[in-house]
Design goal:
The structure holds 2 protein chains of 2 kinds.
Chain A lengths: L7 H4 L8 H10 L4 H13 L10 H14 L3 E10 L7 E11 L3 E11 L10 H10 L9 E5 L9 E5 L24 H20 L19 H17 L5 H12 L8 E3 L8 E3 L6 E4 L6 E3 L1 H8 L6 E2 L6 E3 L3 E2 H12 L5 H28 L6 H6 L4 H15 L1
Antiparallel strand pairs in A: 1-2, 2-3, 3-5, 4-5, 6-9, 7-8, 10-11, 11-12
Helix pairs in contact in A: 2-7, 6-10, 7-11, 8-11, 8-13, 9-11, 11-13
Chain B lengths: L3 H19 L5 H20 L3 H22 L6 H16 L5 H20 L6 H14 L1 H10 L15 H5 L5 H8 L1
Helix pairs in contact in B: 1-2, 3-4, 3-5, 3-6, 4-5
Classes of the chains: A alpha+beta, B mainly alpha.
Chain lengths: 409, 184
Amino acid sequence: MTAAPASLHDSFNIRDNPTPEFIRAIRDRFPVEREVDELLTRKMQNRSGPPYRRITLDELEANLSRMLTDLGVANFVITKPGWFTGGVSKIQMGFTLEWDDPAKGRRKERLVLRMDPSEGSNTTSRSREYELLEAFRGIIPVPAVYWLDPDGRWFTQPALIYAFAPGVTKSRATQTGQVSGLGTNFGPELRAKLAPQFMAHLAAVHDFDFSSRSFSTMDMPEAGTTQAALWQLNRARRIWEEDRGEDFPLMDVAANWLEANVPLLDHASIVHGDFRSGNFLFDEETGQIGAWLDWERAHIGDRHRDLAWMTQSTMGHYSEDGKTYFVCGLIPLDEFFDRYTRTSGLSVDPDRLAWYRILNCYQIIASTVATANRVARLGKSHQDPLLTRVKGMAPTVELELSLCLKERL
Amino acid sequence: MDHSDTGLRAICKSLTDVIAPSLQPDDPLAREQLGLIVHYLEFLRSRLDHLHARERFQLADARALAARVRNAVQGASGTATLESTIAAADDLLADPWAATGDLREATARANHAVSEIVQAAPGLPAEVSRRLSLAVIDGSGDRIAMERAWYLPMGLDPSPAEILPLETLLRRHAGDHENSATAE
């Protein structure tokens, strides 16, 4: 039993300026993949630094020019820089680049710069995102990726440059899907066009054969062990411990249950990590999916992590009569797992699904209750007003967590 | 008379009528954030009259959770801290003039005492540990219900029709400490 400090409420704010001992103790307690460990450690080491200062388009353009010059990109011209909105965790600038491509000659393309703020709602790797976008080119629709600033050498924070993908995340007619496309109602016509592609792309991700590939940013968990699940559990628990501003006994109950019931990995897949409506762009006229985005939470692990994520209650919606729940607004829940198994050839295990559903709830609560508050409190991101809003999602997920836990106890 | 509501209302109107049209058309991020800011201020306006009641609710709720946990793990180590946090909560809840900061601190202490017991649960006999987990889950229901009502204006709850009025939920623990003191 530890002695309670003078103000327990304020004592959580050691996380605003964490000591090396505090950082080390959490690292030691929750082992994670190497790349994730480096990112989270860097986050904590930088936390006491200054708040985010709004960067201008001119500054970004100047950084971009330096990067392209240093990388030997010949005769480039940057035009039409502009902000992109809609994302929560990354700063995004669109621009047009004309340059001499050694392979294709003179070319002109609309591109996107995607950069970390000082600290975001998700601490994730641009390098990993780059590797995955490269790996899935030609497998499912993804934007072509061009350049990477892995450690903020040119942009002060890690950044990635990829092709602009046209399309929308939701129909212009819909009023739903208020935060990054969550709960989007596509309507019957679009649903019929998008759902088969959604399932096929999901299967392609989980069936992707990476045996001949080596990823420098992702560790390979051993099948037949609990390693894959433990890395994800430890990541979520580490984030909760690093960012929280309060005790929440329900989270402790969840952590105990997850720790006591860690599942074995039956088959190692690429897990997208945020495979849902809002993270694909489609053509509103044809209903064709043109690009899958936001690979930042991807890892090698258990496909049930993705399956549990996309079937989580806030990701979809009920039909008007309240009888049918549409997974990601696309596929009726009672058909979803059969269709997945038919398309992918991979089984769905209800126990693993239940474990990852509880883990996902834990992770979302950590992100919306702990991280979003800590980052906005310290003024660390370009989207602090949006981060204060996501707390409104937390109680629904807390309810889901308590119901899932009760079912399993 | 407090004029905070008038102040927030005036600020929202100014942001919408004066500031919004003056934003640069090529700065969608600024326009998006202005919308979020006005929405948050309107949300805060709708909650101004309930802020102190929420602190009292949270303490009463944390106290009720601590009492459930005490009953679930009778005799386990750490229950002495639970007892003292429950007693401290009762004292504060009996005081109609208890300061907001004191209520918040007592809530933090009650939740901390419960969390410490739950974190040590893997060392308890399986049946006690299960009872404890269920006590926490059941004891978290009122907090979750109140927070769903609190954040309802954010528009993020997928089932808004099932949420009870905030005023009803904030009164849910009213009188708990008196009943408990009588029973004990």
